[in-house]
Structure formats: C-alpha cells, structure tokens
Amino acid sequence: MLEVKKFSAVWCGPCRALAPVMEGIKSQYSNVVFETIDVDTDHEQASQFAIRSVPTVVFVKDGVEVNRLVGVNSKLAYVNAINEGLK
C-alpha cells in the first residue's frame, strides 16, 4: 500500500498553494492513501519523518519511505513519484 503524507502548517503560504494540486491528484488514485499532517499539532509524525521544512511530501510504501519531495513541485513531479511508488 502506498501512502502519500503531506506535511504542512496553517501559516505556510506554499502549503496552501500545494493543497489544491494534491486534491486534484488524490482524485486520480483510489488505491493510494493520502494524509495531511500539520507539523504544529502532530509533532510525533513530524519528528518520525525528520521534517525540517514545509511543505514536504513523503511517499511511504509498506511502511518504508521510498521518496520525498520538499517545497512546492510541479504536479507532474508528484504524479511521477506516486507512479514510481506503485510499481
């Protein structure tokens, strides 16, 4: 199972810009679990994944991190990372 964990914060402008992009991608993949994690409220997961800046999107397959994108990237970058994780 592939999980896409988007780490963000309410005060983060780039995070707000990324949100609609991720929502659009989410609608294309029924076989992927998408999760949004607020680093200010979920310190445990932010620490577990060593999040140093937001937004950061971590791709986890079967409990193991397989990819990570930091900052706002193109929609294609996220789609390619998901497709690679599904292989």
What does this structure look like?
- The protein has 87 residues and is of the alpha+beta class.
- It is built from three helices and four strands, in the order βαβαββα.
- A four-stranded mixed sheet has the order 2-1-3-4.
- The chain is globular, with a radius of gyration of 12 Å.
- It starts with a strand and ends with a helix.
Runs in which pLDDT lies below 50 for 5 or more consecutive residues are none
β-strand percent reads: 25-35%
**Main sheet properties:** 4 strands, mixed
Count of helix runs: 3
Assign the structural class, choosing from mainly alpha, mainly beta, alpha/beta, alpha+beta, or little secondary structure. Answer: alpha+beta
Please state the average pLDDT score. 96
Q: Which value, in Å, is the CA radius of gyration?
A: 12 Å
